[in-house]
Specification:
CATH class of the largest domain: Alpha Beta
Number of domains: 2
CATH topology of the largest domain: Rossmann fold
Number of strands: 15
Structural class: alpha/beta
Helix content: 25-40%
Radius of gyration: 21 Å
Largest sheet: 8 strands, mixed
Strand content: 15-25%
Number of helices: 13
Length: 370
């Protein structure tokens, strides 16, 4: 199979869909790999390294002409013209929050496999997990920075010092993002509370942290109390393949302290705050009703070297299966890849996306056999 890796063009996106090591794995498997010049520079991988691994260096149109294109972020409008029926697109898509991209994929007949919906039989999301880990950890790091007064925050040090109160952090969601946010916030010495609707998950975090954090069931009353008490609020809610639920409405901001900070890690899926709008690394923060909002839609792109290696560790093996067996055989024999197929031949094969836009849902296996 001919594999393409174009350079990411989203603003301030420095990750790459493949490392030179990935290229070598495909070449050893008998595949050809086209890498756009400069695709890895943001992550510290030079063109010469890709060439040494066996890649053919090329331009964007040629990279997109491959049988399977491997990326990091969802294609932008300027890339929609590359879509075609014979193409397998393998990347993060977050379609439930992007009607234009969904329509473009369906109208073109492109087969789209989304990292964020690939699920194992036990419910794990292996291709989303590494970026969730990074985003969870970065959420506290960035939140702590924007709590500083020169950046418009309340002027609170999360860990405090002897004789002062520690900063208070509330995390909405106890999944992978929430767990990693709790690790960093607790490690910095903050008072940490995590809210979730899953009692078993809360019990797990309670055991894991040995009482160093507070776990609360996510009721309206508990949420409102945390809004009033917290210096830093982190949105870490995920419904795989679907829009994030709006847990915090604009009127809720009146409960929060002036200069408090919100970090919405769910922004890729539409955000879990009503006031969320996507931002970029060069201008990441805006203020609504006195509350700082950090809503960067590609947070792991700030640490691209770490993020690229962590991501490709998870994505390369399924990609090799797609290349070796072809789309239909690979998807029909792999529940992981079947759960990742969001679109095929003009059909929507992800239930959450279909529900978001009111289109017909077709089971992946049925779509491939038509």
């Amino acid at each position: 199979m001919l594999i393409g890796c174009p350079k990411e063009i989203k603003k301030h996106e420095y990750r790459a869909g493949m490392t030179p090591s990935c290229v070598k794995s495909f070449v050893l498997g008998g595949h050809r790999v086209l890498v756009e010049r400069g695709a890895g520079e943001g992550s510290g991988f030079q063109d010469s390294e890709y060439a040494a691994a066996g890649a053919e260096l090329t331009d964007a149109p040629r990279a997109w002409s491959a049988d399977m294109v491997i990326k990091v972020k969802e294609p932008l409008r300027s890339e929609y013209g590359y879509f075609r029926k014979e193409l397998i697109l393998y990347t993060y898509l977050h379609l439930a929050a992007d009607g234009d991209l969904t329509r473009a994929l369906l109208e073109s007949g492109t087969s789209a496999v989304a990292y964020e919906t690939m699920r194992t039989p036990d419910g794990r999301l292996p291709c989303l997990a590494p970026m969730s880990e990074i985003a969870g950890r970065l959420s506290v790091q960035e939140g702590a920075k924007y709590l500083e007064r020169p950046f418009g925050g309340r002027g609170v040090l999360l860990g405090g010092v002897p004789g002062t109160e520690r900063g208070r952090v509330a995390v909405l969601g106890a999944g992978t993002v929430g767990l990693n946010a709790c690790k960093i916030a607790a490690g910095m010495g903050a008072e940490v509370t995590v809210l979730d609707v899953n009692p078993q998950r809360l019990a797990y975090l309670d055991d894991l942290f040995g009482g160093r954090i507070t776990t609360l069931y996510s009721s309206d009353g508990n949420l409102e109390r945390m809004l009033a008490e917290s210096d830093l609020l982190i949105g870490a809610v995920l419904v795989p393949g679907a829009r994030a639920p709006k847990l915090v409405r604009r009127e809720h901001l009146s409960l929060m302290k002036r200069g408090a900070v919100i970090v919405d890690v769910a922004v890729d899926q539409g955000g879990c705050f009503e006031t969320t709008r996507a931002t970029y690394h060069d201008d990441p923060v805006y203020t609504v009703d006195g509350v700082q909002h950090y809503c960067v839609a590609n947070m792991p792109g700030a640490v691209p070297r770490t993020a690229t290696m962590a991501l490709t560790n998870a994505t390369v093996k399924p990609a090799l299966e797609l290349a070796r067996r072809g789309l239909a055989d690979a998807v029909l024999s792999s529940g992981l890849l079947a759960s990742g197929l969001n679109a095929h031949a003009g059909m929507c094969t992800c239930k959450g996306v279909a529900e978001a836009f009111g289109v017909d849902y077709v089971e992946p296996g049925d779509a491939l056999e038509r």
